[in-house]
Amino acid sequence: MSFKNKFQNAFQHILWDTRLLVIIAVITSLIGAVIMLIIGAMSVIWAVEKFPHLLSSATFEETFHMIALKIISGIDAYLVATVLLIFALGLYELFINKITIKEAKGSVPSILKVKNLEQLKENLGKVIVMILVVLFFKNALMLEYHDTKDLVFLSFGILMISLALFLSHHKSKK
Questions:
Q1: What are the backbone angles phi and psi of residue 144, rounded to the nearest 5°?
Q2: Mutual orientation of helices 117-142 and 60-91 as an angle, nearest 10°?
Q3: How far apart, in whole angstroms, are the C-alpha atoms of residue 12 and residue 19?
Q4: Which of 57, 90, 160, 168 would be 114's cystine partner, CB 3.0–4.6 Å?
């Protein structure tokens, strides 16, 4: 084998093995997911712990507002954790190795089935739309509505969110 062929062969091996660097993104995404799950749990636990105290010391509207915001924050953190998990699993399967244990465990949710980068982006997009819905809902709770224009903007926002959900659901049915 000539020097040129040996060099090309060695370079191709190195180039192929660089795909394993994706493990950095996989590991850090998993760490981020765990952190977001803990943050989400802490938000919901805070709401549960403060609920009796808030009932006795505040008006119903204030109590509802504070509890709802904490629980919505928890849901938001859970959704971000879900994005990170889907991302980590998808990258691992696309670049490193097929996860064979998931077939052995039984049925696999369709959102975790990743055959190519486009499918991973589509799966992530669905969850990201849900995160945006939750953030919109959270911000809508925090706003103060002073006139009719504010309510029209809120209604328009709800319409746009509904349209986005419809289109993402309609696309996934095809």
A1: -105, 130
A2: 170
A3: 12
A4: 90
Contacts of 15 (CB under 8 A, 6+ apart): none
Contact present, 69 and 142 (Cβ < 8 Å): yes
| Residue 42: other Cβ atoms inside 10 A | 14
Helix axes 22-57, 60-91, angle to 10 degrees: 170
Provide the CA 92 distance to its chain's centre, in angstroms: 17
Phi/psi-derived region of residue 58, left when phi > 0, alpha when psi is between -120 and 50, beta in every other case:
beta
* pLDDT digits 0-9 by tens, 67-103: 888 898 999 999 999 999 998 998 998 888 887 776 6
Q: What is the token pair recorded at 168?
A: 């993402």
pTM, to two decimals: 0.75
Distance, CA of 83 to CA of 134 (rounded, Å): 14
